[in-house]
Structure formats: C-alpha cells, structure tokens
Write a structure and sequence with these properties.
alpha/beta, 10 helices, globular, binds alpha-L-arabinofuranose, single chain, six-stranded antiparallel sheet, about 500 residues
Length: about 500
C-alpha cells in the first residue's frame, strides 16, 4: 500500500511537471502595449541602407520609388512598422546631416569609419529617409550627432525637418530642396552609446552634455512636442540609469535608451546557422536576461518617477553572431534561423508585459544587418523567421495588455536551466484577445493549460511558426521554408484552454 502511494505520488509529480499553467486575467487590462515596441532600426551599415532600402534612382532592374525598393516597402507595410530609427548606431555620431541634403551630385562623400571604411556618398539622406517613412507609414526616430556634432547642428536639423515654413534659413533650405512642408518628426535621440562609440563619455559628463543639447532642441510648438530620448545604458549598467534619472531635468527628456544584444561571447560569437544546442541555450539565456534588465532599470526609474511618466526605449536589441562566410566582416550580415524566431517571440513577450515602462523598442537591424527581418541579394528578397514573428505579433500593437501568470517547466541543459514557456496577452479595440506563446525548450514539447479569468470566449484560432530543425532558415533559394501556418491544436472548454507547443516554436492564438 505504502509502495503504491509512493509510486502514485511520483507519477503525479511527473504529470504536474509536464504541465505548464497560465492564468489569463482577461478583466485586468490597464496598460496599452505601445505599438512602438514593434519598432525597427536602420543604420548606414553594410547593406541595410544601400542595397537594402535604397538602390538609387537610376536602377533599371528592380522596381523602386525614388530609389527605394518597392518589394521592401510592401513587405514592411505588411509588418506594420510603427517607428524606424536612423541613421545609426555608431554611424550617427559621425554623421553630419547637411552632407546628405541638396542636389545629390553636390553632396560630399565620406568614409564610413565604423563600418568597414567604405565610401558613403550621402545619396540617401534626410529627405530620402523621411519621405520613405511617410510611404511606409512609420514614424521616424532621428538619432542626433552628439559625439562629434554641435548643439547648433542638431537644432538646425530640427528646424530643417519640423519648423513651419519661412521661420528660419533652415526652413527656406528645406523648401529649396524640394520639400514644400515640414515632416512630422517626434522622436529624437541625443547621441548613441555615449558610453562607447558615441564619445566614450562617463555618465556624469554625458548628463551635462545632454542638458546642453536638449536646451536647443525644440520645435517651439507645444501642441506637437518633441520626444527626446537619452542615450541609455548598456545591458546591466544600472549606474548609468541612476545618474541620468538623478541629473536630467524632468522637462528635458521623455525616455532613456537601453541596448542589449544576445551574443554568446564578443570574441567568439559563433555561426548564425551551424550552432550547437549549447550555443542556442547561451543565446537564449542572454536574450531572456531582458526580463531582469527591464525590471531592474525600471525599478531605478521608479525611485525618481513612480508614475512612470518617463519611458524606457530599448532602442537596440537582438541576436548577434558571426557574419556569413565570405561576406565583409564589418557589414554584420547574418542568417536568421528558428533560434532568432524564438528569441524575438520571447523578447517581445517581455516587452509587452512591461509595457507600463517600455514604450519603444527597435530591433537591430531591419535589413541585411544582424537580426534582420529582410535579407536582399540583388533582385531577390527573403523574409526571415524574425519577420514572421513580428508580423504574427503585430496584433498586440496598441492593444490593452492583459496580465498573465505563467508557471513554467524548466528547459534543462547540463546543470543550467531556463524557463521554457514565455507568454503575453492583449485585447484589441475590436474586443479580440491575443495570446502569444513561445516554447524555448529545444527538445521537449510543452503542454500548456490556460485558465481564463474574467471573460467568456466562444472560439479560438491560431497560427504557429515552427520547423523541423532549430537551425533551419529561409534562403534566397528556398525563401518559404519557414512561414506561419494555421494552428488548430488549441482546445477551448469553458474557461480552460489547452494546447501543446512543439519545441522552439512560436504560437499566437486569437480568442473571441
Ligand atoms: O547595431 C550595430 C551597432 O551596435 C550599433 O551601431 C551600435 O549602436 C551598437 O554597438
């Protein structure tokens, strides 16, 4: 009898440990998931701009509008890119915007010193970028040059782009360059990685410089205020956040940045496609650290800003591996596998769940660089697994976040563990609820039981992104190897929803 009892309890422990549970608090929605959490980043780096977005006005082989690829525009419109950060990155603190306006033949060339010393002919500049954002329906986020620029230069950029006609020589200059009216440019970054390529500054010094630059940054129009983003911390540099919160006057900034890359080891990053389970595990460990980073940076901000009026903008994030064999090491061109899909899905769930503080995030980078959503090779274009995750998740944009309580199994590798199941949920303006779920485990499927509180759903549908190998990717030869498919595996019984998620898969469910 005693033996039987021991067996029975062992058995039940097994069953319990195999079951992940989620409580969906469908009636506790309070905060909006800012659509800008689904933002992107484009730098003058490798083939992000040239060959990615821009192929030149005289290109005869690839369809374009004013030199911007139409296939790229169409793909990004489907993604609903809300905001696009430009022109860098490290490039931003070497960029002098006036080199990139006016007649193209008269624009000076320079060397792109951060990214391979290649010639930058400035044929893609402010007008080209802002016009492209209008076509995309994305808000521009301009990263100002604080590292090697001047307050005057940044103030002039604001005048050139946003001030009303005939209000300064800069606005006359804009009209002379063919733009009849101002653009709408709300988001402005004051330098990039001021602690590194943006000037190797100490935070105390940067805080002073920030105040100086911010003083002259205004559109002098209170109804259309600029949103100023300070160059934020790297990873777990909490001192950086603490000093900025202490030293920046509240009226001078709206958000602090934060950069975090999921890199295995800066001197040995590993292949983007031929990786072991150990490497996958380490990448995911770095990626999931985002939960801790956002929590702790936010807790510091809470001390100075308990009402969360100041935001966190994770304006660079993503996976970083070795470049593809045979490509320029400075161009950061890497393939994109199911590892990246899982990384993106889990990270976006973290951002959604922290949407009270995280109001913007920018995946690095949008085309042909790092964890890109699009890869191009001459006239060919590939949508990566990360693209598909961003597209599946765009249902969360501007929806009300519904809190979820996740009790998850552990993904075990050797002596180390990670949480297997990552989830977030939201309710959109039409009343539909979406739950996005990721199984990080590389080997075990996860059975998930969702207890629904505060709603009475009648139907569930879903989509899944999965593949038979973690290392699979979409290539120029086989661009549709990994695409989202219908997911019919979720069973709704009253207030219970049950499903199984295959290893390294991303699922988005819709409940009505
Ligand atoms: O995204 C590539 C580089 O990474 C950016 O230029 C820089 O800000 C970061 O270090």
């Amino acid at each position: 009898m005693k033996k039987l009892f021991v067996l029975a309890s062992l058995f039940s422990v097994n069953i319990l440990s195999a079951q992940n549970t989620i409580v969906l608090n469908a009636d506790k929605g309070k905060d909006i998931i800012d659509k800008n959490i689904y933002g992107h980043f484009a730098e003058h780096l490798g083939h992000c701009i040239y060959g990615g977005f821009y192929i030149g006005d005289s290109n005869k082989t690839i369809p374009h509008k004013d030199g911007v690829r139409l296939d790229v525009i169409n793909a990004l419109k489907k993604l609903k890119v809300p905001v696009l950060r430009w022109p860098g990155g490290c490039f931003a603190d070497t960029y002098h915007w006036q080199d990139g306006v006016g007649p193209k033949k008269e624009r000076p060339s320079m060397l792109n010193v951060w990214w391979g010393n290649v010639k930058e002919d400035n044929s893609f500049g402010t007008n080209e970028f802002l016009n492209m954002c209008e076509i995309l329906g994305a808000e521009p986020y301009l990263s100002g040059n604080v590292g090697s620029g001047t307050p005057q230069e940044l103030s002039d950029w604001i005048k050139y782009t946003t001030h009303p006609n005939s209000s300064s020589p800069m606005t006359d200059y804009r009209q002379k360059n063919g733009r009849p009216n101002p653009w709408k440019v709300k988001f402005w970054g004051l330098g990039n990685e001021a602690w590194g390529c943006g000037g190797n500054m100490k935070v105390e010094y940067y805080a002073n410089i920030y105040r100086q630059y911010a003083t002259f940054m205004t559109n002098w129009n209170n109804s259309d205020k600029l949103y100023r983003i300070a160059s934020g911390a790297s990873d777990d540099d909490y001192h950086w956040t603490e000093v900025l919160m202490k030293e920046l006057p509240a009226g001078m900034y709206d958000a602090l940045g934060l950069h975090h890359y999921s890199v295995i080891n800066w001197s040995k990053k590993g292949s983007a496609t031929a990786f072991s389970e150990e490497e996958y595990f380490t990448t995911m460990k770095r990626a999931l650290q985002m939960e801790e980073l956002v929590t702790k940076h936010s807790a510091i901000m809470d001390k100075y800003d308990p009402q969360k009026k100041k935001h966190l903008a994770v304006d660079e994030w993503g996976g970083w591996y070795d470049v593809e064999p045979g490509t320029n090491g400075a161009f950061l061109f890497q393939q994109n596998t199911m590892r990246d899909a899982v990384l993106a899905g889990a990270t976006l769930n973290i951002f959604n769940n922290h949407c009270d503080r995280v109001k913007m995030a920018n995946l690095a980078q949008i085309i042909n660089v790092l964890q890109a959503v699009i890869l191009t090779k001459e006239e060919k274009l590939v949508l990566t697994p990360t693209y598909h995750v961003m597209e599946m998740y765009n249902v969360h944009q501007d929806a009300t976040m519904l809190p979820v309580e996740v009790t998850s199994n552990k993904y075990i590798l050797g002596k180390d563990t990670l949480t297997s199941v990552w989830a977030s949920a939201s309710k959109n303006k039409n009343g539909a609820t979406h739950i996005s779920l990721v199984n990080v485990d590389a080997k075990q499927p996860q059975s998930v039981s969702i207890n629904i509180n505060g709603a009475n759903y009648k139907a569930v549908t879903g989509r899944i992104l999965t593949s038979d190998k973690l290392q699979n990717y979409n290539s120029f030869e086989n661009p549709n190897k990994i695409v989202p498919t219908a997911f019919n595996g979720a069973q709704l019984n009253g207030s219970k929803l049950n499903l199984n998620i295959p290893p390294y898969s991303v699922v988005v469910l819709e409940l009505k």
